[in-house]
Each structure stands twice: as structure tokens, then as C-alpha cells.
Amino acid sequence: MENQANVIQYISNHLVTDYVDKLIKVKFSKVVLFTTFPITGAPNISDPRYFAKILNPEVLSDLLRWNIN
User: Fold this and answer.
1) Where are the beta strands (DSSP E) in the chain?
2) What are phi and psi of 38, to 5 degrees?
3) 2-51 pLDDT per residue, tens
4) Alpha-carbon gap, residue 43 to 68, rounded angstroms
5) How far apart are alpha carbons 69 and 55 in whole angstroms?
6) CB-based burial label for 7 (10 Å; 0-12, 13-18, 19+)
7) Residues 6 or more apart from 44 whose CB is under 8 A from it?
8) Rounded distance, CA 55 to CA 57, Å?
9) DSSP 43
């Protein structure tokens, strides 16, 4: 029973390590967008919206495919 627990713990740690390793390989850039004022259409620089643009989505698709299996 103790061996089974050790095996389960090892597999769990190995899966987490692989998952984190793939997440580290994700490359992204930051995109900042601003809302605009309704009448003038000028950007409201006091209201930034931050987004992450993923530059290599194939890494994430590998993670999602791996998660389904």
C-alpha cells in the first residue's frame, strides 16, 4: 500500500513538473488598450486595459490536448 502511494505521488509530481515546464515555454507580449471618451473619441489614458498576446499558441494547444487524454 505504501508503494502505491509513493508511485501515485511520483506520477503526480512528474505531471505537475511537465505542466509547469510547458507553461514556462509560453511566450507572450503585453497589449494595452484604452477606452475612449464618447463624444471626442479621445483615448482615456487613465483607464488602461491590459491583455496578454500569446505568441506561440501551439504550446498551449499541446497542454490542452494532453489534458484531454
Assistant:
1) 28-36, 43-54
2) -65, -40
3) 777 777 777 777 777 877 888 888 899 999 999 999 999 999 999 999 99
4) 42
5) 25
6) exposed
7) 34, 35, 36, 37
8) 6
9) E
pLDDT at residue 32, as a whole number: 96
pLDDT surpasses 70 at 68? no
Domain-by-domain residue ranges, the chain? 1-67
- Residue 5: its H or E element: helix 2-24
* DSSP helix/strand/coil, 69: coil
Total-model pTM: 0.53
Spatial separation of the C-alpha atoms in residues 41 and 6, rounded to whole Å = 62
User: Does position 69 have pLDDT exceeding 60, yes or no?
Assistant: no
Q: 51: how many CB neighbours lie within 10 A of its CB? A: 10
